[in-house]
């Protein structure tokens, strides 16, 4: 009995010991915490999906969607010669759009590296007639313009033999080989080392593709079939550049070593896509929502579903009301230019932000629950209520947990009549002509 008891105590000590060691794993550095703070306030960034797939004008999944063989696909780099690419022009456009950072694909699922990599010849410098490292010019232009640069990095790879076992996608691509998973991990580590060594200070790394290695029974995801070695990948990033923020589009709650959380095509916790992150998995880290201007990430010649500038502004404001940045995407064309429709919308957003930026940048989630027609952001004791529907005559807010002291029209600073009772708040807008995009009300509250 005594022996059993002793073994039990020993086992308990071991279990607790292991848990303790795990819990001690990642403590963000002071630089990292400062970078999180910056990111949290940044509000708006530019996502860029660019690769040799842009030549085919059918999005970044074209290799998978059309089952293009390895032999066929690897002819594409030979045609990739973006002579109109101008890194400074891209950065100036992002700035004029009111964006504070850029996240660009360094290597997407097709396995092609858009930067000079010593561990593969399947990269822009060695395999294209262009021969130049576009990430290098972009990093320099960003640094000059005080824009932070993040690198998207795909975990999933349809090209390399050592991405084996293969995942759920790309199964119809002819010509894929078989190799060793450890080699693939070593390859990714070598590339991450390059990305964090050769391009100056980096904002962070945006991982994607985790879900490819999850079992799927046709209805729901099961367990992972590989070990991504995140401790090593994330550890390497933080060791080389402690301020670099690590995020992973795995659609889960944050894992140890991650510094921000992204939500793909959804406001945090909304999960309208069905594969999004549920509300109870929102982490205590800065948040980012990413969205496309039409329906595609990579350049898609015939995708005409361009959202209007009004819709895009609404999405930016809603993201801010959920305490999140918006990372809005463009898919540059194979010549290196950004499609004119998208450029136009971005510049219009920038014009709007020149006036209304203070109600978006540096704001937090407000205590008012987002509503179909109006959403709110907050800065200290001020709440910016964005009325997104010009038909609204009276704003009804239920569950207002703060005392409102004044309501003004943001543009004119004119005071507006309102009533607060235990049933909520009503604001009378009948004296205003509402803006067709967004009418902003500035509320002051007593208990910030
Ligand atoms: C999805 C897509 C990928 C895209 C990403 C952007 O993960 O697979 O192509 O880069 O979303 O959020």
Describe the structure.
This protein is an alpha/beta fold and 448 residues long. It folds into two domains: 2-362, Alpha-Beta Barrel (TIM Barrel), CATH 3.20.20.80; 374-445, Immunoglobulin-like (Sandwich). Helix content is 28%, strand content 21%. The chain has eleven helices and 18 strands. An eight-stranded parallel β-sheet has the order 7-4-3-2-1-10-9-8, sandwiched between helices. Strands 11-12-13-18-15 form a five-stranded antiparallel β-sheet. A hairpin with a 2-residue loop joins strand 12 (374-379) and strand 13 (382-387). The longest helix has 22 residues, at 2-23. The radius of gyration is 24 Å and the shape is globular. The N and C termini lie far apart (60 Å). The protein binds alpha-D-glucopyranose. Alpha-D-glucopyranose is lined by residues 49, 60-61, 208, 249, 264, 290, 297.
Order of helices and strands: HHEHHHEHHEHEEEHEEEHEHEEEEEEEE
Rg result:
24 Å
CATH architecture of the largest domain: Alpha-Beta Barrel
Biggest pleated sheet: 8 strands, parallel
Q: CATH homologous superfamily of the largest domain?
A: Glycosidases
Label the structural class.
alpha/beta
Low-confidence runs of at least 5 consecutive residues: 1-6, 8-23
State the strand order across the main sheet. 7-4-3-2-1-10-9-8
Give the total of beta strands.
18
In DSSP terms (H or I, runs of 4 or more residues), the helix count works out at: 11
Fold-level CATH name of the largest domain: TIM Barrel
- The quaternary structure here is single chain
Mean pLDDT: 94
Ligand set: alpha-D-glucopyranose
Question: Percent range for helical residues?
Answer: 25-40%
Tally the structural domains.
Answer: 2
């Amino acid at each position: 009995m005594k022996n059993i008891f002793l073994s039990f105590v020993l086992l308990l000590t071991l279990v607790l010991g292991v848990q303790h060691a795990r819990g001690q794993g990642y403590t963000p550095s002071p630089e990292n915490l400062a970078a999180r703070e910056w990111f949290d306030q940044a509000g708006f960034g530019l996502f860029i999906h660019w690769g040799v797939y842009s030549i085919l004008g059918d999005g970044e999944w074209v290799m998978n969607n059309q089952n293009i063989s390895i032999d066929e696909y690897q002819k594409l780099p030979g045609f990739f010669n973006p002579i109109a690419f101008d890194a400074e022009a891209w950065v100036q456009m992002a700035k004029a759009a009111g964006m504070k950072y850029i996240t660009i694909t360094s290597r997407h699922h097709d396995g092609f590296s858009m930067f000079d990599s010593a561990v593969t010849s399947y990269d822009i410098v060695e395999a294209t007639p262009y021969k130049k490292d576009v990430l290098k010019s972009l990093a320099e232009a960003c640094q000059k313009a005080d824009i932070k640069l993040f690198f998207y990095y795909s975990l999933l790879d349809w090209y390399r033999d050592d991405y084996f076992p293969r995942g759920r996608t790309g199964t119809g691509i002819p010509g894929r080989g078989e190799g060793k998973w450890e080699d693939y991990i070593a390859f990714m580590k070598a590339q991450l080392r390059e990305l964090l060594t050769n391009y100056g200070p980096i904002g962070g790394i945006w991982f994607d593709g985790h879900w490819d290695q999850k079992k799927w029974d046709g209805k729901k995801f099961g367990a992972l079939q590989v070990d991504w070695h995140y401790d090593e990948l994330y550890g390497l990033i933080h060791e080389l550049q402690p301020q670099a923020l690590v995020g992973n589009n795995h659609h889960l709650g944050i894992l140890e070593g991650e510094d921000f959380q992204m939500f793909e095509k959804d406001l945090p916790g909304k999960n309208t896509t069905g594969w999004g992150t549920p509300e109870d998995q929102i982490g205590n880290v800065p948040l980012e929502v990413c969205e496309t201007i039409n329906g595609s990430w990579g350049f898609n010649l015939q995708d005409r579903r361009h959202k209007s500038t009004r819709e895009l502004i609404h999405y930016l404001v809603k993201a801010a009301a959920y305490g999140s940045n918006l990372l809005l995407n463009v898919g540059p064309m194979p010549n290196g230019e950004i499609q004119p429709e998208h450029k136009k919308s971005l510049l219009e957003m920038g014009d709007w932000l020149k006036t209304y930026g203070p109600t978006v940048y540096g704001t937090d989630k407000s205590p008012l629950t987002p509503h179909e027609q109006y959403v709110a952001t907050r800065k200290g004791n001020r709440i910016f209520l964005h009325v997104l529907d010009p038909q609204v005559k009276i704003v009804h807010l239920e569950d207002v947990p703060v005392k409102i002291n004044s309501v003004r029209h943001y543009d004119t600073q004119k005071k507006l009549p309102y009533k607060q009772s235990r049933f909520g708040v009503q604001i009378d807008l009948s004296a205003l002509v509402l803006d067709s995009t967004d009418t902003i009300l500035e509320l002051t509250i007593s208990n910030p």
